[in-house]
Amino acid sequence: MTLLRTRAAVTPLRCSFDAEILPSVDALIAVERPEEPMHCLRPAAIADAAAGFVAGFPGQTLYAVKCNPEPAVLRAVWDGGVRHFDCASAAEVALVRTMFPEAGIHFMHPVKARGAIRAAWGEHGVRDFVLDSADELAKILAETGVEAGTGAAEGLGLFIRLALPKGTAMHDLSGKFGASPEDAAALLRAARPSAGRLGLCFHVGSQMLDPLAWRQALALAGEVIAAAGVAIEVIDVGGGFPVAYPGIEPPPLGAFFAEIEASFEALALPGAILWAEPGRALVAAGGSVVVQVQARRGQELFVNDGVYGALSDAGAPGFTFPARLIRLDPPPPAAAEQPFVLFGPTCDSADRMAGPFWLPEDVAEGDWIELGQLGAYGACLRTAFNGFDRARLVEVRDRPMLAAPDQPLAQPGLALAA
């Protein structure tokens, strides 16, 4: 008899404390002296960012759960006023529905398993589904019990993913999903009879610094809608809204919102509304990771987290994160700084983060380094490679590492259960 078992690749992030939350990362390190990576959440910073986006965006805000599905992060996003969630899997759908029974959940992955569609529709009340092919349209109609050509299903939302040309985003997303303009127009016509709500969506790429990218995408969307010759209810402008990193200072979010609103109004679509799917813009500043230096070799530092852990974006994508040294014992760190390369803990030579990461020139084995702007995609990209899958999660009251000096301190949080 064959025994089938499932196994999670990564152990859950573990709580550090059962007692009172410590006010700062430095206080936490002084007590804990961790030899494993420490993930530090700032829920108030996430809630503030979410509230700002909801207030400024001229439409409905859907948080992209894939960016960080940690329950404490989802609660902070909810506290900031987000009531709709962009989910990409049955597991994400179930998580959001369990936490927020009244939330709006939208299944925005263009290719889905049949069982995932059935569970989302029948068990969790999801009514909106994205597609980019005739085969996926047929699959959705079959698994939701809607027969093509028999009229619109009550509440069924069908969203056609439009492919965009390769742009200038730090993470290009043009190569995997999306229908050509001609195919997208045909899919709009095919989906219209079955859709209680019909939409067109796109994604300009992750960490897009140019507001004009949305102008160009919306202009193309308008051409597709005109060619389709059917009414639509929603244009979903996707995510990609940028945040600051060392050496990168994007325009304020208001510049993006203004460009989107003006370009959308120019399309003159009666009754249509805007959606957006931000992820990074809501949560990046709300997370950091504390690593410990295990060895130094010239200007190379070996630390206990890397590209197979929370620092994936610091590998091949080449993101540089704000860094600061934490040293508990004398002597104090040198005032002069120099650039360092980081190596992660695994045996793979690809576990390398070029940075540069600017740190005191006398950084040494045993010191700790806090790396900021890691609330987006850090913890959720962890793997169990080489067995380095243990990490801790705490909430702290510090300002985000790239926050303005006059930004108010976050409110006290609670240590998280494992």
Biggest pleated sheet: 9 strands, mixed
**In whole angstroms, how far apart are the ends?**
34 Å
Summed over residues and divided by their number, the pLDDT gives a mean of 90
Stretches where pLDDT falls below 50 for ≥5 residues? 409-418
* CATH C-level label of the largest domain: Alpha Beta
What is the second-level CATH architecture of the largest domain? Answer: Alpha-Beta Barrel
* Count of helix runs: 10
Helix and strand succession?
EHEHEHEHEHEHEHEHEHEHEEEEEEE
The CATH topology of the largest domain, please? Answer: TIM Barrel
Estimated radius of gyration: 23 Å
Residues in helix, %: 25-40%
Give the CATH H-level superfamily of the largest domain: Alanine racemase
**Domain unit count:** 2
Shape: elongated
Strand content: 15-25%
Report the structural category: alpha/beta
- Total strand segments: 17
Would you mind describing this structure in some detail?
- The protein has 418 residues and is an alpha/beta fold.
- The chain folds into two domains: 14-41 and 284-395, Lyase, Ornithine Decarboxylase, Chain A, domain 1; 109-276, TIM Barrel (Alpha-Beta Barrel).
- The chain has ten helices and 17 strands.
- The strands form two sheets. Strands 1, 2, 11, 12, 13, 14, 15, 16 and 17 form a nine-stranded mixed sheet that branches. Strands 3-4-5-6-7-8-9-10 form an eight-stranded parallel barrel.
- Strand 11 (287-297) and strand 12 form a beta hairpin.
- The radius of gyration is 23 Å and the shape is elongated.
- Mean pLDDT is 90; it is low at 409-418.
